[in-house]
Structures are given as structure tokens and as C-alpha cells.
């Protein structure tokens, strides 16, 4: 049947399947709001991008991009230049404080964190395997692991348990046990630390519990630390956990160190999703990194980005200043957004990391049973783009993720439209 349709549509049945899996936000990129050039456009406070530091980043890149002949070649191979990997090590040794200092042989540079995640699917799993992820989570993980490498995500349900607690770790164990009874093969736990969408960090004790669990079950632990340095001060949160890299623990006492892997990149902490520079770190598993290298020709970072980032990450005074300014701006924006939400009686959960506030718009529909899809419809009508809990496999309906890393005029316009949408809903149901 699929073959017949495929023949008619001039693509293979595989192509046909892929053609239905287009990212859902491209229409937003085509019609982005701008107060002067496109006032009728869509206000985008949904896509996880950090627009707060663009001037500083442009300043650095425009003054440091100097193309050398090396950049016009295959360079040092397909996994990042030697210089880039040295700079990544220098930078991450300062900020992640790994228990065993990083060296270039411990990593491959990738075209963004997405590529690093897909490498995990290709080289740690077989087709049909499962990776455990706790809800809510960024469901693009499913796309990255599944679309080409055919690896599945198995949701871990928390049923009201705090996702950052030790009870949550136990729920991973239970999910694992139930799955293997059904004949599923679980290869790894994927932890998003700091967490997207909840915007919180895991405590050192909980990180150790995850490592211990992976040790007991003899599975991999992949820690996606893409938001590691975007942790800000939130004075209203009591003693919030700070970021701690999983690399900073003596892993050998907790799990098989060959099965511990970390992902980081420039996309979020440096507000540069377009540079497409990420890295996959695996300090004790050369075979895994070799497998990743073997497929690196398919997507490796451009030499221009490689070159610029190598310079940037080696420049301590620039990166120190950039990170602290980014944190201060995120903190201020968090304060601004949450104060405005509170003024309008919209509940949210506290956060101190990544770029997000997790907001309960469902609470504004006053028990009228509005689904996430209903709320999304009225938000679309007001031309404001935020992502709903559906995008994060949320267990509770009504939750939406707002990205706070935008200039205030963008946030204010987006919030105004959200409030307008909720008001519209209220007047519609009370008619
Ligand atoms: C947790 C997480 N991992 C990976 C990615 C992909 O990042 P990149 O743009 O570096 O591929 C994202 C992007 O939103 C993310 O939120």
C-alpha cells in the first residue's frame, strides 16, 4: 500500500514517511513579528533560542573571522579541527570541572547537539532499542533518535512525583523492569541536565543516583548538558540546585565509565543555534567515538564555524564576560516575565536554568476542559507562538513553555497576545 502511494508520489516509501515529519515551526520562521517591518507577524517566544547576547556574539565573530587555507580543506578530519577540540577541552575543563580532565581524544565535534544525540542512537543502540526519558521532555529527542537510526523513546511517567527527586529515579527503574518483562531492550537513560522544558538542575545526589542506576542495570547514561551555563539567579527560589556536570563525578565508583556520555554545544549558552557546533564527550570509550567518526562525513561542522568557535572558547576574558552577562540578562527577564504573569494571575513553576518558564495556561480556562489543542488554537489566532505540553509529553494538560531569552519588547508583545488569547477564551465560554 505504502509502496503504491510512494510510486505515485515520486518518492520512496521511506521518503514518503519522512515527508510527513517536517518540523512544526517552519511557518513561524517565515512570518516572524517585527514592530516595524512585520507588525502582523507571529511573535515567536516558543522556539528555544537565546536572542539576548546577539550583539556581543556578532561583535566577536565579525572581528575574529579570518579565513586560512586550512579552512578550505577537509581540515583535520570530519570531527572538528584539532584546534577546536583543544579549545572545547580548555573551556569545558574550566566550566564543567571534569573529574578526569578532558583531552581532544575524549570527544568528537558535531554539527550541533542534535547531531551528537543522533550519534548516540547510531552507535550505542541497535534499531528497535529503547532509551528512557522522564516526562515532560523535549520530544524532538524522538525525532533525533528515531527518524533515521530507528531508536525509540520510552517515556517514564512520574504521576505527580517531583521529576528531580530520588522517587523519580526509582520510577526509571520500575519502567525499565516492566519494559524488559515485555521483551523491550533498553539501552540508555537520557537525562536533560539542566532540564528542557522545566528549567531546573538536578542535585549532585540525584545525578549520582542516576549513575548508580545505570551501573546496576548496565546501561548507558547520556547527559545532555546543552544549557549548562545558562543558570541564573532566582531570588524567589529557595536554595535552587546549580548546574553540575555529570563529568565532575568519579564515575568508576558508580557505573561503567565507558557508558557515560555528555553532550554540549554553542546553541544555547552562546545563543548561536546557527553556528552548528556541538560536541559529544565519551572519556573512556574509544570504540564509540570511532563509530561516530565513521559517520561524521555525513554532517560535520563547517570549517568557518569551527575556526571562529575555536578562537572564542580559548578567549577566557570574552567567555567569562559573556556568560555572566547572559546570566544577568536571563535573571532579569525571568523576573520581568514572572512578575507580569503573576499580575495576570497565571500560575507557573519556578525555574533558574535554561531559557524557560513553564506556565499553566490551562488554569486560566477555569475548569471548562479546554485541551492543549484548544488553547493552541486561540494562541495561533492571536499570532503568538509558544509550545504546549504536547510537545513535551507532559503528563498534565494545560502547561506551556515560554522562552524568556528575548528582548523585553518581544516578550511584552508575546505576553500581551497570550493574555488577549486567554481573555478571548473567557468571553467565548461565558457567552
Ligand atoms: C535539550 C536539547 N538538546 C539538543 C538540542 C538541539 O540543539 P542544536 O541546535 O545544538 O542541535 C536542543 C534544542 O532545542 C535541546 O533543547
UniProtKB/TrEMBL annotation:
Pfam families: Aminotran_1_2 (PF00155). SUPFAM superfamilies: PLP-dependent transferases. The keyword Magnesium does not apply. Keywords: Pyridoxal phosphate. It comes from the Eukaryota. GO terms for biological process: amino acid metabolic process. Gene3D superfamilies: Aspartate Aminotransferase, domain 1, Type I PLP-dependent aspartate aminotransferase-like (Major domain). This is Aminotransferase class I/classII large domain-containing protein.
